[in-house]
Request: fold
Amino acid sequence: MPPTSRPFRPSRRSRPSRLSGRSIGSRLLLPALALVLLATTVGCGPLTRWGLDPEVTALKKGLEAGSLAGLRTSNGTDAGAELTTLTSGMDGLRPQVTPGTITVNGQKASVPLTYDWVFPAGTWHYDATATFTRTGQGWALDWAPSVLHPALTSTTRLVHRRTQAARGQILGSGGLPIVKERDVFVLGLDKSTVAAGQVDDSARRIARALGIDEQRYLDRVHAAGSVAFVDALTIRAERAQVSQDFLATPGARIQRDVRQLAPTATFAQGLLGSVGTADAARAQASGGAILAGDPIGVGGLQERYDTQLRGKPGDRVVIVPRDTPAGQVADPPAVFNATATSGAALETTLDPDRQTRAEQALSSVKGSAALVALDTSTGAVLAAATAPDDGANPTATFGRIAPGSTFKIATSLALLRAGLTPDSAVSCTPSVTVDGRTFTNYSDFPSSGLGQTTLRGAVANSCNTAMIGLRDRITPQQLTDAAASLGLGKDHDAGFPAFYGSVPAPANTVGGAEALIGQGLVEASPMAMAGVAASVASGHTVVPYLLPSQRPTADAAPLTDQEATSLRSIMQAVVDQGTAAGMRGTLTGAKTGTAEYGTDTPPKTHAWMIGYRDGIAVAVYVENGSSGSAAAGPIIKAFLGS
Reply:
């Protein structure tokens, strides 16, 4: 800052003045007075020095909040209305504003302003200047559009334009795309083609014609601009059948587009999730990373890995005429331009062909049901399908269900570790009572299976009483440890909805007996039980995984070769001579199961079957199934093709 004046100092060569003291005083006073006057008209420094602190602070906060309502201007301009107009095309985005050092020149003052608009693709940084005039009521802003940006005029405004990034694909085994861009038709209401008084009626008619929530769609229509297209339903191009009621509605419109979709609408939907549109609440919560209307992941992998998959959208800011809708302006040069960054692909282990076959095998099943197939050597999830009634629920990998007699494979391992062999003699009685609770076998248990048998024979025929009768040979902890060696009951964060089962300590002796036959507090998902079959088939602890980047590791006592051989002989006997005899030629080893639930007499049951062959382990669960062989077996046959 240049000096305002030079300080007054008497010259050393000056002689004593002969003028009167008054004259001398007047001569000294004039330069000093000039210095004071000059100091009040030109200068720079902190805001508080010039009394401008409140006005500049109000300007900063108003620009950042998008509201200058009530700010006093020197020319009488409504700065609040002006700012609203200038930023009406900025999608609600706001800048960060940093005032610089004030400069005062008489009745005028200027303040440099540094603007930072933060976008996902980069920050728009520029400088502008605000000037103030001192009036009888204090400082007032000299409003001009250039306060917001130097290139703005009284006839222009700012408009933000988003360039969506290419969304990352979800890949299956071998790197083949599962979720990728596919042609769709977007059905909705074009508000620019109907009168304002017709909008509500058209919105309601469209919602009814398409079978969507009427009030929710009406709310979205109200929130959209007066010339907006408001999407209501997206359908795949190959399934384009549109209601005549929709087509007859004023303002109804169909747009062709592409969306990130799986091969079919039901393909692994509980795992993959979908791609939807961000609403205002999601946009606000993102801190500017997402705008209302941006494509975002909804549920499953699409939502959990949305940041990775969606990449970073590009952002452009252009200056357009105020009186022309932004969408009708030819693309002008940008005052800010940051290019989009494509999303990164997400690799999974799903085999598209096997997933499709699994869903076809479940397509006619009523109620909840699931099928999971694993690679026996690695635990890679090849298929994880659910029945149509499950919708988007990830029952296949995240269900929490009593596994019933399929859990007897874990009980068998605990007994083997306690000293038994597959040929050890055990007793299969009609019933067994534990602390007042009587346990029996399933209703059509073969009479030939009663009496003295072997551990292999007891499991092959699924004798409940034999397993419970051996309860004193193992402790609850040994049972939990045996299950863990089969990949069951140890939690892992595998990066997707996954439940690896729970084998907690029972509350009492009755609970301990229930646990031996896979009931009580014992729970598992179909995926976890497929892991049990895979562990037996491979001879080592298998922990199922879907994402190669987040593959869990086993942290339990490993299976020995002898244990694996013994368990394989037991599961093979289930197919050769036991409850899964109908699976001969389809499975090498298996175990059936039912799990009672509810208070009905007789109780309802869930049906299970697990098994393996040729490097694939499979588990099927059927809600309200009568038995594993009757309910789950046909599904496995349909899946494996024999």
Q: What stands out?
A: The chain has a mean pLDDT of 89.
